[in-house]
Amino acid sequence: QNYAKHLSTIEYYENSSQSNANLLLHNAQLAFKSGDINYVEYLQAVTIANQMRLDYLEAITQFNQTVLRI
Fold first, then answer.
1. Labelling 21: which of 4, 31, 51, 52 has CA 20 to 30 A away?
2. Interhelix angle 18-34/39-69, nearest 10 degrees
């Protein structure tokens, strides 16, 4: 049960969340360079993108721990 749950979470991050994080970071960089957003808004976007990446790594850790218990 936990195995399937963690595997599903990883698949979500790989299929959706990671590309969204990359897109968010890319767009924030472009907007900051062009002056459309200020430094604080840029840092907020970077923080969100990094949190998405950390959540993915945490999902992998949880999955690996589940596999080790099997």
1. 4
2. 170
